[in-house]
Amino acid sequence: MKSYYPAPLVIGIFITLILAGCAPEATPPTVDVIGTISVQLASDMLTQTASAHSPTPQPVTPTLLPTETMTPEPVRDQSIRTVVVITNAPCWFGPGSAYPLESYISETKIVEVLGVGSVEGWYIIHNPYFNQPCWIAASDVQIDPAMDPSIFPVMTPGH
Prior knowledge:
The chain is α+β, with helices and mostly antiparallel strands. The chain has helices spanning 7-22, 33-47; strands at 82-85, 89-92, 101-105, 110-117, 122-126, 133-137, 141-142, 154-155.
């Protein structure tokens, strides 16, 4: 028994197999980033639900209009009871040179306030050198703006 293969068929299959093995690799498709993001955004927008309309109106929040511009009072701190001496300052037994000089208080010294003088422009402080009260001019001390002078007693010389 003789078998005959048609020669052109065998040669065609052989050439097809060879060419299939030598075929160039397929390049991956390029990604359309803008198109992809656009489709995702459109999909998100189409799948969102809108809130139902409410026939009841929302309450109106009243807005107060200022009628007058006022500067608020500074907040006073009742715990601040010290001042800083800003010059080499005399400290007297009363308000000024009509009274005996107790001592000088050094510049930058922090001193405790004991009271406000009955004569305007004077503070009674605790003398850090002699541990007793003395009078110092308000111009010789730096007062913290948050200090509340109304918490101190008004003092007169000799008391």
